[in-house]
Each structure stands twice: as structure tokens, then as C-alpha cells.
Amino acid sequence: MTTIGQPRLTHLEQADRYGYYVQRGLISAEHLARIREAFARLQRDVKPEWDKPFQTYYPNVIEFDDAFAELIDHPGILEGVFQVVGQEAQIYSNEILVSKPNQGTMAWHRDKMSIGRHCPNQFLKLAIFLDHVAADGGPTGVIPESHFDIYKGEEFYPHKIDFTAGPGDVLAFGAATLHRAGFHSPSRPNRPVIFLTYVPWWMKQPDYYTGRSCEKLLKSASPLRRQLLGVQLRPEVSLDLHTA
Ligand SMILES: O=C(O)CCC(=O)C(=O)O
């Protein structure tokens, strides 16, 4: 196909310029159906690590069901992750956050500024949406270009984007990008979102992080998954080489 006009920005260029990128409809309907079933089972069988009036948190969901685990090495997800974080990417954390109707919004914040103030794109968080999320249904919001000045907060708020997601959409943003869960009206259902965060191989999780144990997944993990789970780099990846 002939490209007319300017080529599309890559995921990396979008993350650099705007602090986030979007992949619409990335997860197939068949996979989403399995994810929804796994989520229903998770809610029945697992006690969340916290359950607050506005939000419920389930860490380490990839160990719970293959439908979640298959997201970590989903080719479309890795395309963006490898561009932005690099070929040596690994998972830093994975969880489901369920926003609940609460009449309010979460506060705008940045993640892990110990990392973000130096290299925002080396801590890349992907929000993966199971269902449509309306503007008043607890949409994840991001503020474009807020990663450029970590000493500013409120000045950026008027420029927010409340991401009204469709099923299977992905919204990826770096550590220094302001984000939050937006207004969640009492008339809207609970809003689960799967979050996967990727970092380079050489970055460590803090010891207080509770979601890292993946014994079951590791028993049959491919070389790619062993890398993503932080055990061993794939043989073809070397920190001494740069490959895009
Ligand atoms: O639930 C959301 O939409 C936002 C989550 C969030 O702010 C975070 O993961 O740091």
C-alpha cells in the first residue's frame, strides 16, 4: 500500500511526544471473552489485597489464569513495549484495578518518580480494557505532555483526556505522565482494568511489592516468558547491543 502524507508516529515517538499511546481494539473478542470469565472467577474465588469504597485491587492476576497471562507476551502489546522500553523488557507489576461508583475522581498522580524524573518511558504502564468505559464510568485519564515537567501538576489539569475505552483497547503511559481514574457515576457499573507495567531488565522491584510470585507460570514458560517474568534474558537479547 502506498503511504500518502506523513508516516504515522511510532509508539515510541508518541510516548516521547505526548507521554502516552493508544492501541484500539488490540485484544480479540475471543480472548476478551476468556478474560471476562477469568475475572468473574477471580472475583468469586480470590480475596482482593485491598477493597476500598472507590477501588478494589487484585495483584498478580497473570498467575491466576492463562487468559491474563497471555496478555504479557501478546504480540501487539510487546510491539509497543519493545519499542519503548527495549528488547530487554520485563514485567514490573500486574494487577486488576476495579474502579467503583463513588461520585468522585481519583487524584491526578505520577507513578514511581524515582524512575520517572530521569527516564519516564522506562516504566511503561499499560491499561487494558475489558469493556466500553463511558466518560462518567471511571475512565482512565491521562494528561498529554505532563511528562515534560514533573514539577508542575495543576497547570496541566485543563489539558486532561478522559479515555473513553472500547473493549480490547490499550492505553500505555510512562511513569511521569499524570493519570487517574476519572469520575465514576453511581449509575455506571464497576470498571475493571488490567494493568501491566514493563521496565528494563536491569531495574528491580522494591521488596515491598507483593505481586511477584509466578511459580505456576514458570513451570511451562517459554524463553520469552522467562525473560518477561524476570528470570533469564532470551539468548538473542544482549544489553551490550542496541536493537530497536
Ligand atoms: O484505575 C485507573 O484508571 C487508574 C489507575 C492508576 O492511577 C494507577 O494505576 O496508578
Describe this structure in words.
Helix content is 23%, strand content 21%. The protein is of the alpha+beta class and 244 residues long. It has a single domain (26-228), classed as Jelly Rolls (Sandwich), CATH 2.60.120.620. The protein has a seven-stranded antiparallel sheet. It has a three-stranded antiparallel sheet with strand order 7-6-9, with no helix packed on it. The radius of gyration is 18 Å and the shape is globular. The model has no long low-confidence stretch (mean pLDDT 94).
Précis, in short:
The protein has 244 residues and is an alpha+beta fold. The chain contains seven helices and ten strands.
Describe this protein with a few key phrases.
seven-stranded antiparallel sheet, three-stranded antiparallel sheet, 244 residues, 7 helices, Jelly Rolls, binds 2-oxoglutaric acid, globular
Describe the SSE topology.
Blueprint: H1 11-18, E1 20-23, H2 29-45, E2 50-51, E3 55-59, H3 66-72, H4 75-84, E4 89-99, H5 113-116, E5 124-129, E6 140-142, E7 161-162, E8 170-174, E9 179-181, E10 191-200, H6 215-219, H7 223-228
Antiparallel strand pairs: 1-8, 2-3, 3-4, 4-10, 5-8, 5-10, 6-7, 6-9
This protein binds 2-oxoglutaric acid.
2-oxoglutaric acid (AKG) binds next to strand 4, strand 9 and strand 10.
